[in-house]
Amino acid sequence: MYGIHLPDKLVRQSNVTHVTDGVMSQVDLAPWANCEIVLRLPADSKLPTIGGCWRRLPDGRMEAGYSLEQLAMALSILLEKDVDAEKIAESSLTQLKERLVAVTGGEILHFCLQEKMQEQKDG
Fold first, then answer.
1. pLDDT digits (tens, 9 = 90+) for 29-69
2. Can you tell me the distance from the alpha carbon of 19 to that of 52, in angstroms, rounded to the nearest whole number?
């Protein structure tokens, strides 16, 4: 048997911050500086978040940021098939946006793939 001691009065926290690893909070205005792709997902989204870079919005939707590798891993889990990060990078931005919206039911908030795509073309 375990003894759990509860406080006499429970207080509801109105603003949840640092839920996972302290990277983001509900009041942070620019949490996606290090993410290559950021999505705003529906409240019932099944797309996993990876690396703690996400936040739940007051309306229940979720914003999540990914590197290409993290997005490939999350899509592999969601779609139950292997998704390659290189294939994502090879897609045109228009095609990638359309596919992500169709697959996730969300919207694209941020893309930072131009530099990465240019490096691949040059290298």
1. 456 667 889 999 999 999 998 877 888 899 999 999 998 99
2. 8
Sheet of strand 107-111, all strands in order from the earlier edge strand to the far edge: 54-56, 62-66, 37-41, 107-111
Q: Classify the phi-psi angles of 51: left when phi > 0, otherwise alpha if psi is within -120 to 50, otherwise beta.
A: left
At 118, the pLDDT band (50, 70, 90 cuts) reads very low
Q: What is the pLDDT of residues 97-108, one digit of tens each?
A: 999 999 999 999
Q: What angle do CA 87, 33, 107 make, to 5 degrees?
A: 55
Q: What is the pTM of this model?
A: 0.67
Q: Can you give the residue ranges of every domain in the chain?
A: 37-122
